[in-house]
UniProtKB/TrEMBL annotation:
Pfam families: Porin_4. InterPro entries: Gram-neg_bact_OMP, Gram_neg_porin_domain, Porin_dom_sf, Porin_Gram-ve, Porin_Neis. It is found in: Cell outer membrane. Homotrimer. This is Porin. Keywords: Cell outer membrane, Ion transport, Membrane, Porin, Signal, Transmembrane, Transmembrane beta strand, Transport.
Length: 356
């Protein structure tokens, strides 16, 4: 029996026992769609993909009241590949998130594999929610050592104070003899009141390893804002990325077959303008992203994206999206989705997402 299967069986049997003392909830997303990718050197590809709009997942979250306003909390979440029945995030058992912690009037402290504060800021800026062909992460960086996540991380989230919230996160590098190597830390400050939401996120990643030292540190800063006009919501984002791994390419396999493989930028600026337009059961999405590579290579890129969602119910929706990237001077950015890097400069999605 595979280790991941055994874990699910054990967790499933334990949940019934734990429920008598702890409030345990099972939840998830089932998302699958048809994807058509074009423009790559390997040729066009059409496929069925799990997790196009949102990575398909199965999760367990729980809380226990410890008294005096204190609670214990945990979350275990695995990525599910509905198209094959397998697991995502490198076939790990709980590769999406896995943490435990305490919460109360002081906020919450959690420990484990968690999203970086900068990535949560990117989700706010992106009308596509970092999914579908319009995923902002096609051009804007997913920070962390695991595509938007930090391993070995301690995170603090403050209580809401008159609309203001804050986050601090620290990820241990766990390199023997060097506490700085592979270390990461991040922070965010947000404000939400009525129609406006603003968030400033930062991430710092030390690229040193046990065998390689003296490499540059990746530093990513992102300012995001949304304003809800009721008839439409405006999305804005501006990012500054400096250092090795500050703006990595999602597809590193030279997708356009260039004589000289594209180089990830070590100094760039990102700008996003987007809109969400809801009307009844329909929602229109649109965004434009500009990556300005400030290195000598000047490998800039632009992405245009359009999307549509139709809500059958509060839990089930049909979605469609199209995006196209224009690469300059040998840049190698590709149109992917919530779960894939993509293989070409344009892609179309048509799928269904159900939450439970």
């Amino acid at each position: 029996m595979k280790q991941s299967t055994l874990l699910f069986l054990l967790l499933g049997s334990a949940a019934g026992t734990a429920a008598a003392q702890t409030n345990v909830t099972m939840y998830g997303i089932a998302d699958v769609g048809v994807v058509a990718e074009r423009g790559g050197a390997a040729g066009s590809v059409s496929k069925l993909t799990s997790g196009v709009a949102s990575g398909s997942r199965l999760g367990f979250r729980g809380t226990e009241d410890l008294g005096s306003g204190l609670a214990a909390n945990f979350l275990l979440e695995t990525g599910i590949a509905i198209d094959t029945g397998g697991f995502n995030q490198g076939n790990t058992a709980f590769g999406r998130q896995a943490f435990v912690g305490l919460s109360g009037g002081f906020g919450a402290v959690t420990m484990g594999r968690q999203y970086t504060p900068q990535y949560v800021t990117l989700v706010l800026a992106d009308p596509f929610g970092t999914g579908m062909a319009g995923d902002a992460a096609n051009l804007m960086p997913n920070t962390g050592d695991a595509a938007s996540r930090m391993n070995n991380a301690i995170k603090y989230v403050s209580p809401n104070l008159s609309g203001f919230t804050g986050e601090l996160a620290y990820g241990f590098g766990e390199v023997a003899g060097d506490t700085k190597a592979a270390r990461q830390y991040g922070a965010a400050l947000g404000y939400a009141n009525g129609p406006i939401a603003v968030r400033l996120g930062y991430h710092n990643r030390n690229n040193d390893t046990a065998t390689v030292t003296g490499t540059s540190t990746a530093k990513d800063t992102l300012l995001a804002m949304t304003y809800d006009f009721n008839v439409a919501k405006l999305h804005l984002g501006y990012g500054v990325n400096k250092g090795t791994n500050s703006s990595p390419l999602r597809n590193t396999a030279n997708p356009y077959g260039s004589a000289v493989a594209p180089t990830a930028s070590t100094d760039s600026r990102d700008m996003l303008v987007g809109v969400t337009v809801p009307f009844g059961v329909h929602t229109l999405l649109g965004s434009y992203i500009r990556k300005n590579d400030r290195t000598a290579l000047n490998q800039d890129a632009n992405q245009w994206a359009l999307g549509y969602r139709y809500a059958f119910s509060k839990r089930t929706e049909l979605y469609a999206a199209y995006a196209r990237i224009s690469n300059d001077n040998g840049a190698g950015y590709t149109v992917g989705s919530a779960i894939e890097a993509g293989s070409g400069d344009k892609a179309f999605n048509l799928g269904v997402r159900h939450t439970f």
